[in-house]
Amino acid sequence: MLNMEVNGQNIHITLYENSSTQEFKKLLEEGTLTLEMKDYAHMEKFASIGRNLPRNDRWVTTRPGDLILSEGNLLVIYYAPNTWNFTRLGKVENLSEDELKNVLGKGNIKATLTWCA
What we know:
The chain is of the alpha+beta class. Helix content is 16%, strand content 48%. It contains 2 helices and 9 strands; from the N terminus they run E-E-H-E-E-E-E-E-E-H-E. It starts with a strand and ends with a strand.
């Protein structure tokens, strides 16, 4: 389970099984990852993870709560739908769509990610 802390709120994310998530888990096992995530188009927050991961891109339509790898090095959490060629990493488990929008708020955020085996 991945924990993403934003504004004092813990967001629990279950990761899917693919080569992208395997490498992402290895990155998180090195230690906590803190990202300054920018808001884009009032539908997502994104940030570079500082390295490229394997891509398992598919043409998908995101839903609120989807955690996505974009371009091999961008971590994106969606709070509105978008259709593009992405790699699915995981899904928020503990918040509704409205709760997620409230936690992520408007504008940029700081997110702290930790791996909880």
